[in-house]
Amino acid sequence: METGAQNTADISHLVTQFKAVPGGLLPLLHAIQAELGYVPDSVVPSIATGLNLSRAEVHGVISFYHDFKTHPVGRNTVQICRAEACQSMGSRSLEAHAKETLGIDYHQTTADGSITLQEVFCLGNCACSPSVRINNDVFARVDQDRFDELVANIRGEVEIK
Amino acid sequence: MKFFIPKDTTALALGAESVAMALQAAGAEPVRNGSRGMFWLEPLLEVETDLGRIGFGPVSSKDVPGILDALKAEPSSHNLYLGPVNEISFLSSQQRLTYARAGVGDPVCLDNYQTLNGFKGLKNALSFTGQQIVDQVKDSGLRGRGGAAFPAGIKWQTVLDCESEQKYIVCNADEGDSGTFADRLVMESDPYQLIEGMCIAGLAVGATQGYIYLRSEYPVAHKLLNIAIDRALEANFLGDNIQGSGKTFHLEVRLGAGAYICGEETSLLESLEGKRGMVRAKPPLPAIEGLFGKPTVVNNVLTLAAISSILEQGAEVYQNFGMGRSRGTLAIQLAGNIKRGGLIELAFGVTLREVVEDYGQGTYSGRPIRAIQVGGPLGAFLPESQWDTPMDYEAFAAINAMIGHGGIVVFDDTADMAAQARFAMEFCVLESCGKCTPCRIGSVRGVEVIDRIVANEDRDNNLILLHDLCDTMELGSLCAMGGMTPFPVRSALTHFKSDFTGQGRGDN
């Protein structure tokens, strides 16, 4: 199942950086994901060895947290808030619209590799719902038209302000 | 003329960056301040003039040239003119202690913070013994603002009384409840206040290391906190030999990874230790055996932020706000389907109706309000008959509701409360840590039973079953996740039963 890229991923510099940090596994996993885009299965043994944990423990932590991805994701991550404040402002129909127009469900990536769609529970922007996060930017009052505009923008189809 | 345009998450999400760029293009370099929490006016452009700070909002980049023209002649002629910002009634009627500095200046500017009385509490604390600081906190009546409302001073006393070579201060900044943004606003608009509060906590109980456990959904707060910590360290308000006192306190931000349950304090500690966020059984209390098994103060952002003003102004000032056993101010977060949403800091005791009608001015959609959820995804849905309840921990507990972290989510009359009850169970399925059966399995069964009720499959028996399941979750779960998921479910069943049975929309 593993690709060549996974097998060659070298994270030893990150393991060295975090192995002496108290409770360093989460910061290490974040750092690996920031560098590789996800946490491939192939790096689990070196994390385990470096932090003196079992592979099962490392796997258990990776699988517990929604943030950690074990497979490659698209060039952009689009998160739609599904929490109550956004629901009260129509996020349920926004979710349906997003899935339909992108042709994917949550945790899937569009065929062109540009977008991975994810759910998120609260971006702390609840007074101006519905909220969408694209990579590290949050957008407020996102209706269907605004969503289409944001998607077209990250795909490089249009420039928006 | 000095211009201010915020750089907090909500202002940025509404286009503050392009407003800042338009100002720069016109030769006006704006100060990037924090938000004042009047989110319905964001992006709120403020201008320092002879008349004081005047506001325009909500502003988009294309409004900038017109505003600059109006400023040369008559500012009030512009249709987005709001007058002096301090006189906007949404703000002027509040009792701001924690948020007094929010939005005034650049949140990571140390000089600005100190000009606005910052670090005075810390300087006072440096002249006190640990016990004297703890006594101040006890006298203030401050209760934990995360949701459980446990008296902060008693928790601190427990940690102070523990003999240990290492103790910790942990700030719970895993603000996961929908409808809440009070912690975010502190961290993005006034981060030094939190840093100061944590440093004081360290001095009080004898802890030399602090961690802010921040949710990964807050990238802006993450960036600003790290800048603020670096600057505080450089100016020796953190680190070794703080201000020549010989005292030490180090502080680090740790990022969560998208697990709601890590807002539960023992799950948070497990996560900080680098493990799965599995809830621990209590006892032992974290105050006695917390992070890495050492005595640990775990407090919410707002609790720790309040410490700096208590130590600055004295316990009595804080104690003088509020009602009954709920002392001080409450950071109310008005959100969801609301015309004027934002942060409202008031003494305890204001009614829910006053908040949604006077401050909120009704729904964003213009339709009637149907239900209000207070206290996040584990809080009850309140029908109109309960909106006159004063916002006080005990008054809410008396109607089987909770104030929690102070989040208010408003729903208009298009809301389907059976769907909301189902969502409460579904959320518990997704976010349960899985340690205890009532929460892990009960929530799955809850979704199924609600589906059967709505589909009219053996409805009467399934309604009995749902109540029975709620009892099991409430009484048998290890923590509030499973234990309180029944609150929104039961309140929807009690007050909006017709949504489950399809018998018209008459609320009961």
Report on the structure:
The complex is a heterodimer of chains A (161) and B (508). Chain A is α+β, with helices and mostly antiparallel strands and 161 residues long. Chain A has helices at 4-8, 12-18, 25-36, 44-51, 55-64, 84-87, 91-102, 144-154, and strands spanning 76-81, 115-120, 132-134, 137-139. Chain A has two domains: 4-64; 76-154, Glutaredoxin (3-Layer(aba) Sandwich). Chain A has a four-stranded mixed beta sheet, with helices on one face. In chain A, a hairpin with a 2-residue loop joins β3 and β4. The longest helix of chain A has 12 residues, at 25-36. In chain A, 37% of the residues are buried. With 508 residues, chain B is α/β, with parallel strands linked by helices. In chain B, 42% of the residues lie in helices and 14% in strands. Chain B has helices at residues 9-13, 16-25, 64-72, 89-92, 110-115, 120-126, 130-140, 152-161, 182-189, 191-205, 219-234, 265-272, 301-313, 315-319, 352-359, 393-398, 417-431, 437-454, 459-476, 480-484, 486-495, 498-501; strands spanning 2-4, 45-49, 52-56, 81-84, 168-173, 209-214, 250-255, 296-300, 322-323, 326-327, 329-336, 342-347, 369-374, 381-382, 407-412. A five-stranded mixed beta sheet of chain B has the order 12-11-15-13-14. A four-stranded antiparallel beta sheet of chain B has the order 1-2-3-4, with no helix packed on it. In chain B, strands 7-6-5-8 form a four-stranded parallel beta sheet, with helices on both faces. In chain B, β2 (45-49) and β3 form a beta hairpin. The interface between A and B is large, with 43 and 62 residues.
Instruction: State mean pLDDT of chain A (0 to 100 scale).
Output: 93
- Structure classification of chain A: alpha+beta
The helix/strand class of chain B is: alpha/beta
Q: What composes the largest sheet of chain A?
A: 4 strands, mixed
**Weakly predicted, low-confidence segments of chain B:** none
- Can you tell me the CATH superfamily of the largest domain in chain A? Glutaredoxin
The helix/strand series of chain A, from N terminus to C terminus, equals HHHHHEHHEEEH
Largest sheet of chain B: 5 strands, mixed
Oligomerization category of the chains in this entry: heterodimer
Query: Helix count of chain B, per DSSP?
Result: 22
Q: Give the radius of gyration of chain B.
A: 23 Å
CATH class of the largest domain in chain A equals: Alpha Beta
Q: Mean pLDDT of chain B, rounded to whole units?
A: 96
Number of strands of chain A: 4
